[in-house]
Write a structure and sequence with these properties.
alpha/beta; Rossmann fold; Hypothetical Protein, Haloacid Dehalogenase-like Hydrolase, Chain: A, domain 2; 2 domains; 12 helices
C-alpha cells in the first residue's frame, strides 16, 4: 500500500496535482498497489483530490479520525468525541486568549480572537494587502472555511465535530490543556491533546494520529504496516512515517520530518511523491 498525504506532498504550492503524478499513481494502482490518502483535511476537502486521482479506495481524513468511503458517501470508521464533551471543550477554549479552529466533516470554523497570533486566518490580518484578502475568498470557499464571531454558533450547526484546535502563546495553550483535565472527571471520557507547530493545541478523542489511520487501513485491507510506503511533509506525518515499512519525507519537509524518514524525495513542486512512488513500486 502507498499511503499519501495531500498538502505539501501530492499537491503543489498552488494546490494542483501534476499530470505526471496522476499517471504514476494510475500505473502503480493498475499493478495492484493499494493507494490511499491519509490527510489532516476533513472529508469534504479530501473528496476533490480523491476524485481527481480516480481512486476507489477509502480515504483517511482528519489525521486518522475518519475512514470515509467516497463512493458510498459514508464513514467506515470514525473516532469523534461525544457531542456533550465537545460542547464543554468549546466552552473551555473560549475562556482563553486563543484563536480556535473547529473541524467538522463538512467545514472548518475559524474563531479569530487575537489577530496577532501566528496561525490560522493570517489572510485577514490588518497588515495584509487588499489583494491578499480578496484572494483568500476563493480559498475559503473551496475548503469550506467559515469565520464565526461566537464559538457557540458551532453547536447549532448539527455537524459532527472531530477536532478543536487552540492556537496561541505557550502559557495560553498550557492553560487550555490544564483546564481540559476536568472533562475526565465530569464525563469520564479522556481527551487527547497534541501540540504541533509549537503553538497549535489539537484536542481530539484518544487513539488518533496518522499512524493510527495507517493501522486501521492495514486491518481493513489485511496487510502489514511493513508493506506500506508512507509519504508526507509535515509534523503531523511523523508518526505515520515511523510506523510504515518505508517512510518517505518530501524535499520541502522540515529537518524533524526528514530525520524521521527512511528516504527523502524531491519537493512537492518537483513531483517528489511521483518520484518516490516510481522508485519503490515501478
Amino acid at each position: 500500500m502507498a499511503l499519501l498525504d495531500i498538502d505539501g506532498t501530492l499537491v503543489t504550492t498552488w494546490k494542483s496535482i501534476t499530470k505526471q503524478t496522476k499517471n504514476v499513481i494510475k500505473r502503480i494502482s493498475d499493478n495492484g498497489v493499494i493507494i490511499c490518502l491519509c490527510t489532516g483535511r476533513n472529508v469534504n476537502s479530501t473528496i476533490p483530490v480523491h476524485r481527481a486521482l480516480r481512486l476507489s479506495t477509502p480515504c483517511m481524513c482528519v489525521d486518522g479520525m475518519v475512514m470515509y468511503d467516497v463512493a458510498r458517501r459514508s464513514a467506515i470508521f470514525e473516532n469523534a468525541l461525544p457531542h456533550g464533551v465537545m460542547s464543554d471543550v468549546l466552552d473551555i477554549v473560549a475562556q482563553y486568549d486563543v484563536n480556535v479552529e473547529v473541524i467538522t466533516d463538512k467545514r472548518y470554523y475559524w474563531y479569530v480572537k487575537n489577530k496577532n497570533i501566528r496561525g490560522y486566518d493570517f489572510y485577514t490580518q490588518d497588515n495584509n494587502s487588499l489583494l491578499i484578502k480578496l484572494g483568500s475568498i476563493p480559498y475559503k470557499i473551496w475548503f469550506g472555511v467559515r469565520n464565526i464571531k461566537n464559538l457557540q454558533l458551532v453547536k447549532t450547526k448539527g455537524e459532527k465535530i472531530y477536532e478543536v484546535v487552540a492556537i496561541g502563546a505557550p502559557d495560553q495553550t498550557d492553560a487550555v490543556k490544564a483546564a481540559l483535565g476536568g472533562i475526565t472527571t465530569t464525563h469520564g471520557c479522556e481527551v487527547l491533546t497534541r501540540l504541533l507547530w509549537s503553538n497549535q493545541l489539537f484536542i481530539t478523542a484518544k487513539d488518533v494520529g496518522k499512524s493510527h489511520g495507517l493501522r486501521i487501513l492495514c486491518e481493513h485491507f489485511n496487510i502489514k504496516p511493513s508493506e506500506v510506503v508512507a509519504i508526507g511533509d509535515d509534523d503531523n506525518d511523523i508518526d505515520m512515517l515511523k510506523s510504515a515499512g518505508m517512510g518517505v519525507a518530501m524535499g520541502n519537509a522540515s529537518d524533524a520530518v526528514k530525520n524521521s524518514a527512511d528516504f527523502v524525495t524531491r519537493t512537492n513542486n518537483n513531483e517528489g511523491a511521483a518520484f518516490a512512488l516510481e522508485e519503490f513500486f515501478l
